[in-house]
Amino acid sequence: MKSLKLSPSIYWNKLKNLLFGESLNDHHKLKRALRSCARNKVIDTKTLKMLEGVLTISSIQVRDIMIPRAQMICVKENQKEKDILPKIVNSGHSRFPVMDKKNEIIGVLMAKDLLKYYIQHKDSTFVLKHDIIRTAMFVPESKRLDILLEEFRAKHNHLAIVVDEYGSTSGLVTIEDILEEIVGEIEDEFDHDTPINVKKIKENTYLVDAKVSLEDFNELFNSNFLDHDVDTIGGYVIHKLEIIPKVGVKLQIGNCKITIEKANAKTVEMLKVVFVKGVNA
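The structure assignment produced for this chain is given below.
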């Protein structure tokens, strides 16, 4: 028996009832109505994904998407140009947290401000001082993304420093991070198909920065390492070994043989990853 195909107007009426009727606060019903619209070609799948993203950010907190402090690229107050410029050029970022001698965040350096300074002071030696450092925006880990997005818009900010309940820096978040929750990953001219922190040494052998996210690692190597308690491949290795390993320690998971290439007392920094032929993943 053939099912009757409802007209697009019926789905629009459903949406209007949800948006302007008594069910306005029911996100689940609204998402189901949107998916019905997509299935019946009233909206396309890209539009569906964006609308679902808009609804989802109201339930996501900053801590869920922030860049952890250990992965932040910072500059230091009183640093000279020879120390700052390589970081700016190699990172491809336009905004950098500025730390004082106690490693506390005191502001933000914008690359365009540095360029403007060079144009105005061509013959002088540059030292990072307060007159070029902008005020930093601080937000708690628990702030919802929809609220932060509105604050970014109202204050014309693109970056915020995330602090924990004790006021210590736990990471940073950008407006791009929030928009990617809505529209998906935004690639620019500095993005690469193969992460720049993954280097192929020879066939089936790679040097991998331990800060590479577990999701990126799985996508790049078609692996299936799952652990909801960690975000990075380095964290995954530490969790598996249940210790902070020293250089030379080896771990094999299926066809993936991992050797610790670089580490310190607190974490692992670099891994050598070899995929062994003839071993099931």
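Interim note for the steering committee: The chain has a mean pLDDT of 83. The two ends are 45 Å apart (CA to CA).
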